[in-house]
Amino acid sequence: MSRTLQRLALSGTILLAATVLTACASGADRPAETVDPVNPVGTWGDAAATGEPSLALAEDGSLTGTDGCNRLIGTWTAETDTVTFVDVASTRMFCEGADTWLSALATGTVDGGTLTVFDESGAEIGTLARSSDEVPTSEPSIEPIADALFTGTWGTESAGTASGEPFIIIAADGTASGSDGCNTFGDSTWTLDGDTISFDGGFSTLMACEGVDQWLNQRATATVDADTMTFFDESGAEIGSLPRTA
User: Fold this and answer.
1) Distance CA 120, CA 107 (A)
2) Structural element, H or E, at residue 163
3) Mean pLDDT in residue range 207-231
4) Which one of 71, 77, 215, 220 is CB 3.0 to 4.6 Å from 234, fit for a cystine?
5) Which residues contact 5 (CB under 8 A, 6 or more apart)?
6) Digit-coded pLDDT (tens) for 8-25
């Protein structure tokens, strides 16, 4: 091979190597692609339809809605393509025939105009179509929902003093009445402070019932977890619990 051809071949090899190195350097300097989080802000489902589930996700991260029976309120966060629903509270009304699947919401994904909702186990429980990019201007306060978590009948009212079983009725007007399994009580009032209600005042009969544990008569405060109300005395000691029956 002539010296001229050798020089040309060497120059071509150097040029090719430089090109490869430049390409590699460009790839190394290129920033990794980032995925923008989904934007679920808006109304999902028909909020005006009675008995139908819907969610309103506000720009500030708050959440309101209904599962078709009970009202929902909480917060949400979004990361990449997943929406996480946080601290969602619900009223506890019973609606015969209503499919309240949305009350089990834990996470969701957005694909175009569809929000797919999953429960805590990751199972898909339903979908909602986006009905608006905005949320309703009037949003329910947490206070009525918190009230509804407590209001209702706890324990079996029909049992009452005849069976020695306690029950209490927490009314929406702020009063409480019932039986400690021996004596009936009424005109007691209750107030809400965060996730705790406090009882005050009222009257009680003063019968003696041998063998009946009248622990409910020592109630001072109570909390609710799902369908169980737990009662505490004035010292803060737990004295008993009752299941929701209505």
Assistant:
1) 7
2) helix 160-163
3) 90
4) 220
5) none
6) 444 444 444 445 445 444
